[in-house]
Design a protein that fits this description.
By secondary structure, the chain is α/β, with parallel strands linked by helices. It folds into 2 domains: 116 residues, Response regulator (Rossmann fold, 3-Layer(aba) Sandwich), CATH 3.40.50; 105 residues, LytTr DNA-binding domain (OB fold (Dihydrolipoamide Acetyltransferase, E2P)). Helices cover 27% and strands 29% of the residues. Strands 2-1-3-4-5 form a 5-stranded parallel sheet, with helices on both faces. The longest helix is centred in the middle third of the chain and has 16 residues. About 7% of the residues have low confidence.
């Protein structure tokens, strides 16, 4: 994967270049200090990934993207968290807050790798070349990934590690983190496909718990378990089938 770094801070570019040395599949093909330089280098170098700062002299990172007919996959790098919503509106792969952590960078590059490996759609005018490829499975999220959550007029950018419970609430799923309880239009089945099963456990038809937030476990009726989570929220009754799976997973 060829990457272009765009940031008005030489120190920030140097630090990011240093972090990227841990990922031999990534080649930094150029650097730019502002949108004008970036636009020229994008045309000349055709990178796969654009690491893009938001606040720069002249045009912002968003204004640069708006001026492009075609853009590579974008990973925003910024010291400000208030632009997360706008970043997702322009289909950014990820939004990394400075100082950038290596595990977050690794997760962002995994998303880029998945996108780049997905075959481009075939034109309807092209002759058929066999059966259509299966739709790729959604990229697995790690507990260190940050996800954008919106409920009404409120928005959050939250680490999955900080979410202790997902619970069905009508036709929505309620998320428990800190003191917040937003609702999102996602099913537990969809979330289960995206979450790391070593951390997020499907306790029953209604709830997925973060195992790292378990405070206590006690035997319950008919050989089931009841789990209490740190930080509040309802006690979770684990179904009989999942109780057996829980014991099998976590026993020595």
């Amino acid at each position: 994967m060829n990457a272009l770094l765009v940031d008005d801070s030489r120190l920030a570019r140097t630090e990011l270049r240093h972090l990227l040395r841990a990922f031999p599949e990534v080649t930094v093909v150029g650097e730019a200090r502002h949108a004008g330089e970036a636009r020229t280098q994008l045309q000349d170098l055709q990178p796969d990934i654009l690491f893009l700062d938001i606040h720069m002299p002249g045009e912002t990172g968003f204004e640069l993207l708006a001026s492009l007919d075609v853009a590579p996959h974008v990973i925003f790098t910024t010291a400000y968290d208030e632009y997360a919503l706008q970043a997702f509106e322009v289909n950014a792969l990820d939004y990394l807050l400075k100082p950038i952590q290596e595990n977050r960078l690794a997760a962002a590059l995994a998303k880029a790798r998945t996108k780049l490996m997905t075959p481009a759609p075939v034109s309807a005018l092209a002759p058929a070349a066999g059966p259509e490829p299966e739709e790729p499975a959604p990229a697995l999220l790690t507990e260190q990934d940050q996800v954008f959550v919106k409920d009404g007029e409120q928005c959050w950018f939250v680490r999955l590690a900080d979410i202790r419970l997902f619970e069905i609430n009508g036709s929505y799923t309620q998320i428990y983190f800190e003191q917040h309880r937003p609702l999102i239009p996602r099913t537990l089945q969809h979330l289960e496909q995206r979450l790391d099963a070593r951390v997020f456990f499907r306790a029953n038809r209604q709830q997925i718990i973060n195992l790292k937030w378990v405070e206590s476990i006690e035997p319950w009726f008919s050989n089931t378990l009841k789990i209490k989570l740190r930080g509040g929220g309802p006690e979770v009754e684990v179904s009989r089938q999942q109780s057996a799976r829980f014991r099998e997973m976590l026993s020595l």
